[in-house]
Amino acid sequence: MSEKYVLAIDQGTTSTRCILFDRRATVVSVVRGEHPQSYPRPGWVEHDAARIWRDVQRLITQALREAGIGPEQVAALGIANQRETVVLWDRVTGAPVAPAISWQDTRTESLLTGLDSDLIRERTGLTPATYFSATKIQWLLADRGLRERAERGEVLFGTMDSWLIWNLTGGRHLTDVTNASRTMLMNLSTLDWDPALLEMFGIPRAMLPEIRPSAAIHGTAGAVLPGVPIAAAIGDQQAALFGQTCFAPGEAKCTYGTGGFLLMNTGSTPVRSSHGLITTVGYRIGSEPVTYALEGSIATAGSLVQWMRDGLGLISTASEIETLAGTVRDNGGCYIVPAFSGLFAPHWRSEARGVIVGLTSYITKGHLARAVLEATAWQTRDVVDAMNADSGLALTALSVDGGMTADNLLMQYVADVLGVPVDRPMVAETVSLGAAYAAGLAVGYWSDLRDLRGNRHRAGRWVPAMDEQRRAAESVNWRRAVECAVFFSRPGSRPGV
Predict the structure, then answer these.
(1) Quick check: 368 and 309 in contact, CB under 8 A?
(2) Apex CA 461: angle with CA 9 and CA 78, to 5°?
(3) CA 297, 258, 374 angle in degrees (round to 5)?
(4) Contacts of 383 (CB under 8 A, 6+ apart)
(5) Who contacts 82 (Cβ-Cβ below 8 Å, separation ≥6)?
(6) HSE-up (13 A, CA, CB side) for residue 318
């Protein structure tokens, strides 16, 4: 009998990956394709959903070809995806009716005015923000004149998992609890669409997908992989939590990609935040009780490095940032607050704008490079401080993953500012691994959570080396820089305002 594998799709903000794993969670093949983002106006970020679907078809075929296997050797398919990004499509033609609006997009800021924030927090665990899906759907329905068609169920909504499942299965309209929990429309207690919130945002239930567990058989991927079950759908950051095997309350991970996303498992009871974090669904395996999490989201992490490369031309490849930052001993008193899409957790100031403070003639591009890396570390510290306060637990170690963890200087600085060890697993692509794990559990490829923990191996550890006095002084300077980013957004603080 031929050996079988689990295939994971990681549909991300700037690229899509397809990775095949074996029973030991070893990567058998990995393929990746970038897709462009469109910025038609300031604050607008769009994707071509049809292009992404074409990429997925091509990459699945390529991943199997590189592994030298056929569809019959794929035990299951798991999907992880960028979470809050909104796709609307025609039920009959299957074609998108508008560009997909990215989670980074801030065009709907005016729609937040007058919302019942207390009701939204109580029902969803979320702080009202442009980040989440509800106002993006609301905006598209009004801007494109789609409300009547949506009420008749002729226009459908989905996050990227729904969009891919629809296309792979030939028309099944589904999502999972983790993605639904990011829309600002799902009730955390009932795990269903909330009638009061649908009315608040004017969103017809007829356009919404069915909400299902993260690990469950959602259909067959017949469009590309005949006979292969789609056995998991899970938001990318929850997938990373699962891939890092953070199965016990108090265990936490941070994924460093385009943004930074720190999640802590809080068990079967949702922990309500009073320090600027959000309460979300961590995962749900079949009919088992749902596992909740606290989350702090950082809007700009790896994308700040991309800006240094593409916007300023100070580096030619993203990996050069570490080398350039290593040419200086410190940041020279320079701090960068990358509020390109406002400030996310724990500040939630969508109107904030990015600033560089502490500039003198002493500052070189090396200092700027170091300030870029340090900005990611200090944003992590802001979230961890809030998470410790909300959970009543003191973080003792942080598991990390994502492309930026290849930067040893950054990982050391994260350990320094947090004052706890930072651990990187052998398999850095934990988003894909989490989707694979969930799919494999659903079909019995892996037996239980202990089976998954047995696959975990640590590839690197960084321990704090910064003394407490310096850590405290740098923390004060960072907070002052954040205050400048918020101050710049106030009326009269910018030219022409």
Answers:
(1) no
(2) 10
(3) 75
(4) 260, 262, 277, 296, 298, 345, 346
(5) 11, 12, 13, 102, 103, 159, 160, 236
(6) 16
Residues near 249 by beta carbon (within 8 Å), at least 6 away in sequence: 265, 266, 267
Cis-peptide, bond into residue 209, ω within 30° of zero: no
Helices 408-418 & 365-391 angle (0-180, nearest 10): 40
Q: Which two tokens stand for residue 464?
A: 């704090």
pLDDT tens, residue by residue, 453-496: 999 888 999 999 999 999 999 999 999 999 999 988 665 544 44
**pLDDT tier for residue 393 given thresholds of 50, 70 and 90:** confident
**pTM reported for the whole predicted model:** 0.85
Give me the count of residues in the chain.
497
What does the pLDDT look like over 394-436, one tens digit per residue?
888 999 988 899 999 999 999 999 999 999 998 888 999 999 9
Q: Which residues contact 256 (CB under 8 A, 6 or more apart)?
A: 301, 302, 376, 400, 401, 402, 403, 404, 405, 410
Q: Which backbone phi and psi does 56 adopt, to 5 degrees?
A: -60, -45
In 3-state terms, what secondary structure has residue 268?
Answer: coil
φ/ψ (deg, to 5) at 134? -55, -50
Residue 131 · residue 103 · CB < 8 Å: yes
Cα–Cα distance between 15 and 34 in angstroms, integer?
Answer: 4
Query: Using alpha carbons only, how large is the chain's radius of gyration in Å?
Result: 22
- Dihedral angle sign, alpha carbons of residues 437, 442, 444, 447: positive
> Which H or E run contains 89?
strand 87-90
If DSSP codes are grouped into helix, strand and coil, which group holds residue 204? coil
Cβ contact 146:140 at 8 Å: yes
